[in-house]
Structures are given as C-alpha cells and as structure tokens.
Hints:
- By secondary structure, the protein is of the alpha+beta class.
- The protein is 20% helix and 36% strand.
- It contains 3 helices and 9 strands; from the N terminus they run βαββββαβαβββ.
- It binds (S)-Methylmalonyl-Coenzyme A and cobalt (II) ion.
- Residues 7, 9, 54, 79, 81, 130 line the site of cobalt (II) ion.
- Its EC number is 5.1.99.1.
Amino acid sequence: xxxxxxxxxxxxxxxxxxxxxxxxxxxxxxxxxxxxxxxxxxxxxxxxxxxxxxxxxxxxxxxxxxxxxxxxxxxxxxxxxxxxxxxxxxxxxxxxxxxxxxxxxxxxxxxxxxxxxxxxxxxxxxxxxxxxxx
Length: 134
Ligand SMILES: C[C@@H](C(=O)O)C(=O)SCCNC(=O)CCNC(=O)[C@H](O)C(C)(C)COP(=O)(O)OP(=O)(O)OC[C@H]1O[C@@H](n2cnc3c(N)ncnc32)[C@H](O)[C@@H]1OP(=O)(O)O
Ligand SMILES: [Co+2]
C-alpha cells in the first residue's frame, strides 16, 4: 500500500540556522521558509536526489510539535512521510487494523498542496507517520 518515501521531517529550534547549515555545510538546495498555519508549523524543504528533508519549526500557540521540541531541545527526527495513491482507502484500511488517525481523521492539505494524514507514533513502533496522496 505505501509507496515512495516523500520526506523525513526534522523539528528544529532555529529554522534559519538549520536551513543555512543544510545550504552551506551540506551543499543542498534549500527552499524559502513557508508558513503552514493549518498545521501549526513553518517548513523549509531540503531537496535531495531521491527524497526531501522537511525542516519544521513551531508556528502559533498550539503547534503540534511544541511538546516534541520541549523534550528535544536540539531538535530531532519528527516524522516520516510515505506516499499513497488513495488516502481514504489507506486511512480506512489502517483504521480497520486498529491504527489511530490523528486530528479529526480527515485529510488536510499539506505542504505540497496534496492531502495528508498523520498516524499515532505509538501504533507504529514509536514513529509518527504522515501519509501523502500523490
Ligand atoms: C506541513 C505538513 C506536511 O509535511 O505536509 C507537516 O508535516 S505538519 C507536521 C506537524 N504536524 C503534526 O505532527 C500533526 C500530527 N501530530 C500530532 O498530532 C502530535 O504531534 C502528536 C503525535 C499527537 C504528539 O503530540 P504531543 O507531543 O503534544 O503529545 P504527547 O506529549 O502527549 O506525546 C504522546 C507520546 O507520543 C510521543 N511522541 C510525540 N511526538 C512524537 C514523534 N514525533 N515521534 C515519536 N513519538 C512522539 C511522546 O514522546 C509521548 O510518548 P510517552 O507517552 O511515551 O512519553
Ligand atoms: Co511532513
């Protein structure tokens, strides 16, 4: 059911510093920061030949990554994003298998203007999973 790895997200305490680190030290192509108010984060994408790294920083009072950064002051790997062809079919299959879909269970439009959903890390060996319909 799951397809390609779309991105790995890293929560960071200083977005400009992290973006600059990837641009200069790592020599990667790095996007401009983009606010995602519906998701409570600001994102920078680092383009790699085979996937992307999504640098995340909290946006607003109720960011879903605030507690994670409080627990991981230097930042850390926050989620992995797998592509799916049909997000509703994937959601229903996962729910039937007992996985918890986060939020209200309905897909939101993600950073690539495609529908996304998140699955509880406790149901996937401690890893927060994002599904993106491509
Ligand atoms: C723009 C978009 C895109 O790419 O298109 C994005 O990515 S938006 C990316 C940002 N959006 C999201 O992450 C949306 C989905 N995420 C959420 O709803 C939240 O982050 C939760 C996953 C529910 C966690 O929230 P929060 O940390 O406040 O809850 P909590 O403190 O009660 O933590 C519950 C337990 O889960 C663990 N936990 C929390 N976040 C975790 C993570 N990222 N990876 C692995 N484990 C994690 C905690 O350590 C804790 O374990 P213990 O109980 O053992 O201590
Ligand atoms: Co993401």
